């Protein structure tokens, strides 16, 4: 069997999003406003309803639809109603909603995710605007109150674009924001990516085009439909190399790798290309971990969805692994001094062999980051700042090598002072953070004046590594580390007690890092996306070193098993407690810092919140609760209308959520 993966469009392996496809189906033709612009998307909606009546592929382990199916189904019904098409599908979809909404809402009571709280209310409002009569059981009153209240809290507390606290930002839900939210044409255009998308969201981009008529938006949508004829994905554009890697990994998991050896080799060849082009994969010594670096980055750095940052992390990690091994194993002291000095003056004069290969790859990587930073962010050239961080890292490797070769044993303090830098996590995180949006402020790049969260990451990464690598370093490399130094300075302590002491430090410092990453007022003014990247880096180190040294394992099985869990296998979630009474709903503790309020404090504020939620739903008479067993949502307010002169301003907009493509 032969399939040339290189000639297959990676998007053909990505599951379509019914929600986003429906949104493109709603876009009217510029020249014939009573016809859809993307008829293939409308046809997809017509032809992809399930037998049960819903849209989308979201099912639980028993094949039953999950809560994600509600907004997707509503969006598809709205698209059909918009063009007076598919009457049988509409009737079947409404029947599904009437039969299943109550159950699905109650199953998720007190645990509605942020995207659902934004998306679902907007879909309900848009449904009534286009004339769909959605009937909800009266017993769902408590759940509806809760969701609309949560939506109102989000709208009132979040900024339109606020990457410092929330990702994705509110503007990426453009199609779902209520009419009360003040958005102008300039806000939308200012936040468009170079590719014409609005935060890579097809649904938000579709709404952006309807609101502005922007040609870049239109080009993006046309490219998307042409590329993804069989339903559009939840994000566009996507990292195509990552898609191919996932295909290869999936073939291996299914036991089909032997039938696709040639294809797997071709894909991995693409992954290795940077490493091969610059000679890093052909050094002939040390650890070849290119694949590990790419897979680990893909598994952990999912927020934000930025392929440039992810690629830079993977390349940087590959380079660091090779260079670190050169300092530990292969290079003579003279070679290492010459390489370190070359990095200091950033000049390869006098270098040859492995030293020149490492320097040339490093120079290429720094230039790539600096150029991308100017392209994405504009402003100052960060080349000099990046060089300083890399020199600091190379200098720390040289210090450790000198100690090892001379037999000098540092104190615990001296060891950490160097070891926190030599682990090089800050090098990766700060460099790649320059490609985020918003970007890391340039003054945060200057060593050693790093943020507390960065220093905590450096410490945690070093100690995690040391708890699992002390045997290799002591027996093979002749080096010391923090576990061994603590045992040496405390003669009555055995190795297990020394490891236990380090783990106590890890527990305390991990809590501090989480506080800096997740809590406001922690003293860090880094953008939210940058904080998330710190967390992703910590997660990667925990994956490699929490229970064993899987980075240096001779077998790929252990680490690939972890990565498969991170990418493919869904988390198990306990079913939330159902409300005892719909007239007395359980109160949600809404706190993006993940701080848990006590049950008593919830009870104290219960009555006020329940009444406020009910008032919120009914204050404009947009919704009428009947004493019968159904609730009918009747339209009385105008839809969301963004000011424009392009003929689309009366087109309404629903909500946004992110779906995995695997």
Automatic annotation (TrEMBL):
Domain Terpene synthase metal-binding: 276-512
Highest taxon above the source species: Eukaryota
InterPro entries, alphabetized: Isoprenoid_synthase_dom_sf (IPR008949), Terpene_synthase-like (IPR050148), Terpene_synthase_metal-bd (IPR005630), Terpenoid_cyclase/PrenylTrfase (IPR008930)
Keyword field: Lyase, Magnesium, Metal-binding
Cofactor(s) this protein requires: Mg(2+)
Gene3D superfamilies, A to Z: 1.50.10.160, Farnesyl Diphosphate Synthase
GO biological process entries: diterpenoid biosynthetic process
GO molecular function ontology, one term from the record: magnesium ion binding
Pfam families, per the entry: Terpene_synth_C
PANTHER family found in the cross-reference section: (E,E)-GERANYLLINALOOL SYNTHASE, ENT-COPALYL DIPHOSPHATE SYNTHASE, CHLOROPLASTIC
Protein name: Terpene synthase metal-binding domain-containing protein
Lineage: Eukaryota, Viridiplantae, Streptophyta, Embryophyta, Tracheophyta
């Amino acid at each position: 069997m032969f399939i040339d993966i290189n000639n297959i469009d990676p998007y053909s392996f990505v599951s379509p999003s019914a929600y986003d496809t429906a949104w493109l189906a709603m876009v009217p033709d510029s020249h014939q406003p009573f016809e859809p612009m993307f008829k293939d998307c409308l046809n997809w909606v017509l032809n992809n309803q399930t037998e049960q009546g819903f849209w989308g592929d979201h099912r639980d382990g028993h094949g039953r639809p999950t809560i994600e199916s509600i907004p997707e189904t509503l969006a598809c019904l709205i698209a059909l109603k918009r063009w007076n098409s598919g009457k049988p599908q509409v009737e079947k979809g409404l029947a599904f909603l009437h039969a299943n909404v109550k159950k699905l809402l109650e199953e998720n009571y007190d645990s509605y995710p942020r995207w659902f709280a934004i998306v679902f209310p907007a879909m309900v409002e848009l449904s009534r605007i286009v004339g769909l009569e959605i009937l909800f059981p009266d017993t769902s009153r408590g759940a509806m109150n809760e969701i609309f209240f949560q939506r109102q809290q989000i709208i009132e507390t979040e900024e339109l674009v606020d990457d410092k606290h929330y990702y994705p930002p509110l503007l990426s839900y453009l199609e779902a924001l209520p009419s009360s939210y003040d958005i102008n044409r300039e806000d939308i255009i200012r936040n468009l990516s170079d590719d014409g998308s609005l935060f890579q969201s097809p649904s938000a981009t579709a709404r952006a085009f309807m609101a502005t008529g922007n040609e870049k938006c239109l080009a993006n949508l046309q490219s998307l439909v042409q590329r993804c004829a069989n339903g559009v994905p939840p994000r566009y554009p996507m990292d195509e190399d990552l898609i191919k890697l996932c295909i290869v990994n999936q073939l291996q998991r299914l036991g089909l790798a032997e039938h696709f050896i040639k294809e797997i080799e071709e894909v991995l060849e693409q992954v290795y290309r940077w490493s091969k082009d610059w000679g890093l994969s052909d050094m002939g010594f040390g650890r070849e971990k290119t694949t590990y670096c790419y897979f680990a980055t893909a598994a952990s750095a999912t927020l934000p969805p930025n392929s440039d940052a992810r690629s830079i992390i993977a390349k940087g990690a590959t380079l660091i692994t090779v260079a670190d091994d050169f300092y530990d194993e292969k290079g003579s002291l003279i070679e290492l001094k010459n390489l370190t000095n070359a990095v200091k003056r950033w000049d390869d004069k006098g270098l040859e062999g492995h030293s020149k290969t490492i320097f040339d790859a490093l120079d290429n990587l720094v230039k790539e980051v600096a150029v991308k930073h100017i392209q994405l962010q504009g402003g100052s050239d960060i080349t000099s700042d990046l060089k300083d961080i890399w020199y600091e890292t190379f200098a720390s490797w040289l210090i450790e090598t000198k100690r090892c070769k001379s037999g000098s044993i540092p104190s615990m303090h001296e060891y950490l002072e160097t070891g926190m830098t030599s682990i090089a996590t800050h090098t990766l995180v700060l460099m790649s953070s320059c490609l985020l949006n918003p970007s890391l402020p340039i003054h945060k790049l200057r060593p050693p004046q790093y943020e507390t969260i960065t220093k905590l990451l450096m410490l945690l990464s070093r100690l995690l590594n040391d708890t699992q690598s002390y045997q290799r370093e002591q027996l093979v490399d002749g080096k010391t580390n923090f576990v061994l130094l603590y045992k040496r300075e405390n003669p009555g302590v055995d190795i297990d007690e020394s490891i236990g002491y380090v783990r106590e430090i890890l527990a305390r410092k991990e809590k501090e890092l989480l506080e800096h990453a997740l809590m406001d007022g922690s003293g860090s003014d880094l953008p939210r996306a940058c904080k998330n990247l710190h967390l992703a880096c910590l997660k990667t180190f925990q994956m490699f070193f929490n229970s064993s040294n899987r980075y240096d394992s001779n077998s790929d099985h252990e680490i690939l098993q972890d990565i498969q869990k991170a990418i493919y296998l869904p988390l198990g979630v306990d079913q939330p407690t159902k409300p005892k009474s719909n007239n007395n709903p359980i109160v949600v503790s809404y706190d993006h810092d993940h701080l848990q309020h006590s049950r008593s404090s919830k009870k104290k504020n219960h009555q006020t919140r329940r009444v406020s939620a009910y008032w919120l739903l009914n204050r404009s008479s947009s919704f009428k609760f009947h004493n019968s067993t159904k609730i009918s949502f009747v339209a009385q307010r105008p839809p969301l209308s963004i000011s424009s002169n392009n003929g689309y301003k009366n087109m309404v907009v629903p909500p946004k959520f992110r779906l995995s493509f695997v």
